[in-house]
Write a structure and sequence with these properties.
Layout (H helix, E strand, L loop, with lengths): L2 H29 L2 H10 L1 H26 L6 H29 L8
Helix pairs in contact: 1-4, 3-4
Length: about 110
């Protein structure tokens, strides 16, 4: 298995996880009251803030991936590997942020309601 097919598999797996987490988060946002969501995000703001900074670094890597794509020689495996690494890190940063956002919004214990 070469590195390009590994990045393709990781890309598919991470995209699937991102879609599932975004759907779960959207379901929670529709189900819960706005005041409850605000209070839960307020309580876990410090944690979300550090993961949002991590996500911002991921967006910078996403920008670098576009620059590598524009300046790349077609068919170069070194550039393909660099693009794969940059996109994978970017997608993992989105996944980590969505996970922590979901955990912050999710009901921790049903007895609290």
């Amino acid at each position: 298995m070469n590195s390009i097919s590994i990045f393709n598999f990781m890309d598919l797996a991470v995209r699937l996880c991102i879609v599932i987490l975004s759907l779960l988060t959207s379901h929670l946002l529709l189900k819960l009251d706005a005041d409850v969501i605000r209070s839960r995000i307020y309580v876990s703001f410090k944690n979300l803030k550090k993961y949002f900074i991590f996500l911002s670094i991921g967006f910078l890597l996403y920008l670098f991936e576009a620059l590598v794509s524009v300046n790349s020689i077609p068919g170069s495996t070194q550039n393909d590997a660099a693009k794969g690494i940059l996109l994978t890190i970017f997608q993992f940063s989105i996944l980590v942020f969505l996970y922590h956002l979901y955990v912050a919004i999710k009901v921790p214990d049903r007895r609290i309601l």
